Amino acid sequence: MKTQMRAAERTKALAGVVCSLLAGAISGGCGPAARPIGVYETRAIAVAWAGSPYNTRVEEMTAEYKRAEAVGDKQRMAELKKEASKRQDRLHQQGFGRAPVDDLLAPIRDRIPAICQAEGVERIVPTWSWEAVAKKKVDVTDRLVAEYKPSEQTLQTIAELRKHPAIIGPVHCD
Shortest CA distance to 95 belongs to which of 173, 158, 170? Predict the structure, then answer.
């Protein structure tokens, strides 16, 4: 009986700790000194990245495809077509849905701490993340997008995109 009571007390105490931690995470931290969380629109990052100098893989794959075609390497041509299709599907999910954009943030990752400091946020998360329910949050999307040096047309596309909800659809797993 005592063992069961101790186990129940430990479970109750652990539940209290977990609830406290979750409450702190959801509210953006504990105490008055907690900094807000930065949030960003993943679709805007995808659009900014697509038109940026960081988007080089398509050109590389096109050149590689032409080389494979020139020597008649049908297997490599098929592999490149499959990769291109997967990449396009993924970018569509990132640009129109809620697929993570960690790979697209990679080229600017070293500048993110400075953005966080300038915006006064402790970390950044996607707007759709469970952490984005924090009471204190700052939208850092425009600061991140600026790192991709977007054209005026890209900025207009992003502005229009942000007026509409994300389309959530299937993501290829293979």
Answer: 158
The domain in which residue 107 lies consists of: 35-161
User: pTM higher than 0.90 for the full model?
Assistant: no
Q: How many CA atoms lie within 13 A of 18 on its CB side?
A: 6
**CA–CA distance, 56 with 59 (Å, rounded to integer):** 6
Does 127 reside within a domain? yes
Q: Is residue 91 part of a domain?
A: yes
**Structural domain tally of the chain?**
1
Where helices occur in the chain by DSSP H, the ranges are 2-26, 42-50, 57-71, 74-96, 102-105, 112-119, 141-146, 152-161
Other Cβ atoms less than 10 A from the Cβ of 64: the count is: 17
| CA pair distance 28, 125, nearest whole angstrom | 12
30 within domain boundaries: no
Count CB neighbours of 150 within 10 A: 20
What does the pLDDT look like over 52-73, one tens digit per residue? 999 999 899 999 999 999 999 9
Give yes or no for residue 41 having a pLDDT over 50. Answer: yes
Q: What is the pLDDT of residue 39?
A: 96
